[in-house]
Amino acid sequence: MDKLPSLSSRQRLLIGGAGGVLVIGLIVVIALIASSRSDAASEQPIAFNHQIHAQNDIQCQFCHYGVNQSPSAVIPSVEKCMGCHEFVATDNPEVRKIAEYWADEEPIPWVRVNEQPDFVYFNHHSHVAAGVSCGSCHGDVANMSVAEPVVNMNMGFCLDCHAEQENKDALYDCVVCHR
Ligand code: HEC
Ligand code: HEC
Ligand code: HEC
Ligand code: HEC
Ligand code: HEC
Fold first, then answer.
1. Tell me, what DSSP letter sits at residue 37?
2. What is the pLDDT of residue 9?
3. How far is the C-alpha of 27 from the C-alpha of 25, rounded, in Å?
4. From ligand 1's centre to the CA of 71, what distance in Å?
5. Nearest Cα residue to 47 out of 94, 107, 105
6. Cα gap 70→125, rounded to integer Å
7. Cα of 40 from ligand 1 centre, angstroms
8. How far away, in angstroms, is 117 Cα from ligand 3 center?
9. Which atom of ligand 3 is nearest the CA belonging to 116?
10. Where are the domains of the chain?
11. How many angstroms does the Cα of residue 50 sit away from the middle of ligand 1?
């Protein structure tokens, strides 16, 4: 919280009036939820390798098709994997695990890597449509064997980039990200 943004005139009015209580209330509630979460282990059920797939020219959007249309990027389904792995590298022990999930009609229980707390609203589609690259938030995933969170996506990180945008004031409003 060392980088609290300068407040818009609307927020100053709010803090000056009875709304100040609401803003402080929001901060307390968010801080309480924030202090209660824990980090998940990053051991994946199948050793999925981004680099190998990128080297085979498979685009990010082919698997994470949500980036073109929705808040969530989407983690691909077992069916999506089987579209290739019914034929490709079928002897590989990690690939055999995919076929087992498919036969059992079970989803692969991927462990989430970048998870924002529930009190933060984020939308892939609006960033991708505005021309923000995957790499500015996720690093060079195409060269990672294991997807790892190399960027610390805290509030200061989000605000630093929003500060460079033309509609900076609108993008600084607390309710843009805390709805
Ligand atoms: C063949 C499908 C496929 C392709 C292509 C692919 N991914 Fe993924 N991606 C996955 C799967 C499966 C996971 C979940 C397992 C993991 O975290 O490694 C994942 C996880 C991720 C995560 C972590 C998600 C989380 O839990 O927060 C990021 C970030 C990501 N991919 C970005 C990318 C980028 C950027 C590209 C293009 C360079 C890309 N992916 C290409 C299948 C794919
Ligand atoms: C568009 C085709 C395509 C899709 C979809 C795809 N893969 Fe692959 N996958 C490949 C290719 C090509 C290779 C490299 C095979 C080789 O080099 O023998 C590969 C290799 C692999 C390997 C072996 C990697 C190694 O260490 O040798 C695993 C495991 C794997 N994929 C998992 C997945 C999973 C899980 C999904 C679904 C999230 C998926 N793949 C979706 C094409 C695909
Ligand atoms: C402005 C920053 C930013 C950009 C740009 C961005 N992401 Fe993300 N990504 C995030 C955040 C934040 C999360 C966690 C979202 C959550 O927990 O609600 C995330 C989560 C993910 C996930 C996990 C599934 C999900 O949607 O929660 C995948 C996969 C992913 N991103 C892939 C991509 C790909 C591929 C691109 C480029 C096409 C991309 N991201 C661009 C910030 C970004
Ligand atoms: C590298 C630059 C960059 C970073 C980092 C970034 N944003 Fe943004 N953000 C943008 C741009 C550009 C827009 C679109 C502005 C527009 O369309 O007017 C935007 C718009 C938004 C919007 C409003 C659009 C909508 O979908 O409601 C939200 C919410 C948002 N960002 C949340 C976040 C969060 C949360 C983070 C951090 C996890 C983040 N952003 C990080 C550049 C960034
Ligand atoms: C561009 C998006 C964005 C905007 C605008 C924003 N926040 Fe946040 N905020 C975040 C993110 C992302 C986190 C989660 C940080 C983390 O996980 O470390 C967060 C966390 C917090 C927390 C929890 C404390 C903590 O360190 O985890 C508080 C309190 C908070 N925000 C208050 C505010 C207030 C008040 C405003 C308006 C002055 C505001 N935020 C504007 C993105 C934003």
1. -
2. 46
3. 5
4. 16
5. 94
6. 5
7. 17
8. 13
9. 17
10. 50-75+110-148
11. 6
Answer whether 175's CB lies under 8 Å from 119's CB.
no
Q: Give the list of residues 6+ apart from residue 46 with CB closer than 8 angstroms, or none.
A: 94, 97, 98, 108
What sign does the dihedral 28-42-133-128 (CA atoms) show? Answer: negative
- Confidence (pLDDT) at 55: 98
Region of residue 154 (left: phi > 0; alpha: psi -120 to 50; beta: else):
beta
Ligand 5 contacts CB of residue 151 (under 6 A): no
Tokens 């036969």 identify what position?
103
- Looking up tokens 């990180």, which residue turns up? 157
pLDDT digits (tens, 9 = 90+) for 123-161: 999 999 999 999 999 999 999 999 999 999 999 999 999
Predicted structure pTM score: 0.89
Query: Is 128 close to ligand 3, i.e. is its CB under 6 Å away?
Result: yes
* Among 153, 158, 167, 168, residue to substitute to test ligand 4 (most atoms within 8 Å of Cβ): 158
Q: Which two tokens stand for residue 2?
A: 């060392």
